[in-house]
Amino acid sequence: MEKSYKTKQRVAILGYLRENIDNHITADNIIDHFKQVGNPIGKSTVYRYLDNLVEENIIRKYTGSERGEAACFQYINEGHDCCTHFHMKCSKCGSLIHLDCHEMEELSEHILKEHNFLIDMCKTTLYGTCENCMNN
Amino acid sequence: MEKSYKTKQRVAILGYLRENIDNHITADNIIDHFKQVGNPIGKSTVYRYLDNLVEENIIRKYTGSERGEAACFQYINEGHDCCTHFHMKCSKCGSLIHLDCHEMEELSEHILKEHNFLIDMCKTTLYGTCENCMNN
DNA sequence: CTAGTTGCAAAGAGTTTGCATGGCG
DNA sequence: CGCCATGCAAACTCTTTGCAACTAG
After folding, report:
1. pLDDT of A41 above 90
2. Residue B106 · residue B83 · CB < 8 Å
3. Would you say the pTM of this structure is higher than 0.70?
4. In this structure, which CATH number among 1.10.1670.10, 1.10.10.10, 3.40.50.300, 1.20.120.450 belongs to the domain B1-79?
5. CA of A86: which chain B residue's CA is closest?
């Protein structure tokens, strides 16, 4: 095991992720936030520490589903695990919807049993049109 | 509608995509291929034309699920309407699986009725692990 | 002719790396 | 003090854009 120092930058970043447990945070979000509160943190520090946290399973990484889209990170907390549900993204307005639905879990099981494919909800995004954009 | 010229570059690129109808082709694959056969095509031409073809639903774009992974393209075969079913792509070996399954259609209806979201099967790819890669 | 197309180079976005400096333990 | 962490800038990858030269119709 490696040693790990508890620096003020790391405490700040982890704290920010915990505060935003319900949100998907990008590396840029973190960098911007601490710049705005007058406590800037270097981006290499942010990226490196995020990698560490992912490695240690303290946060989860969502790879952007579209090119040029930044990866999102989220603190892992019981009951808030976004890898247990699907995400739907509206192609028109870009909004991200968390789909908590029991039928989707059944679907995953169905695909695993009948089609021998293990879906990774972390990496999968359903694209389409959201309610608002359908009515416009 | 805009005019569209039939240039030798475009004919060549589309021909290459058609030859590789069973493969996932990246922009770099195309650029490399034509460089190697002594008929180089500029990368901006390739990227721009691929965008056109995606726009016109002649080819399909799969965006990589890992950082730094290039997007893949594939010719859409007429008579095999890929917009009526889902696609699953294995994150490990890259293979693409067409999922013809009645339950998936029900799922789309369920999401539309209960969650007010219209899924676009053309643009959606389910990422995960295929049978072969699970056993290795 | 003339509007669409090409291709080079340069710009961009997101991310990673090299390296000297800084600070935890 | 020894090490790991920090942060700046530069490197990197894939992709897009500006623009002058080119070409299909």
Report:
1. yes
2. no
3. yes
4. 1.10.10.10
5. B126
